[in-house]
Amino acid sequence: FNSVSSVHCIAVNPRGQDMALASQKAFCSSRPRTGGRARTNAVRVRCDAQVDAPRRNFLQQSLAFVASAAVLAGSHSGALAAALPPQDIKVLCDAECSAALESVEAITLPSGLKYKDIILGSGPSPPVGFQVVANYVAMTPNLRVFDSSLEKGKPYDIRVGAGQVIKGLDEGLLGMKPGGIRRLYIPGELGFPKGLKAGPGRPSVPPASPVVFDVQLLYIPGLETDE
């Protein structure tokens, strides 16, 4: 006959980490013979590693911390990201403004550039070669911002018609007046022929892809008019 003994052990490995509680069935036999009959005794063995209470508490807290960190970095990362507030992006024409523009007919120039005036402004338009001070918000066709002077906190100085900026923006500024805001629908050949790489948190622009620019002409140095 064989008897079954139950063994329960808790051990600590050399690095101080708790090992899982091991439970197994051990088979052993005791074979003293009396009068030719085999006698078997059931033996129950229990071994416990001796770990002092403070160290055990420290190990348990450490494992709990590691487990929590793994959960946060893994399965719950998407939920945490979704819980973060949306990024506040400054624009010249918000969602309500863009919706109102849907009913406005675009003006198409011979080059293929299209635009819609949001605010007309007043005063003279900049002649070719004149410097202007303007704000801009550059977007993909689905209005995702990839560049903006508003986020840089400083308007942009542009010499109109001098090739300092992309052709579509150069041409779109020519008919504007100070104080005006215009949305430019720039075809690929007038935009970024080589495309733009994605910046942090910003979309990329594929080569020769159409782009949308909202432009605000602030003033034209040397052409201010007295009111």
TrEMBL record:
Q: Which residues cross the membrane?
A: none
Q: Known PROSITE patterns for this protein?
A: FKBP_PPIASE
Gene Ontology MF terms: peptidyl-prolyl cis-trans isomerase activity
Keyword entries, A-Z: Isomerase, Rotamase
**Can you say what this protein is called?**
peptidylprolyl isomerase
The source's domain of life comes to Eukaryota
Native species: Volvox africanus
Q: Which reaction does it catalyse?
A: [protein]-peptidylproline (omega=180) = [protein]-peptidylproline (omega=0)
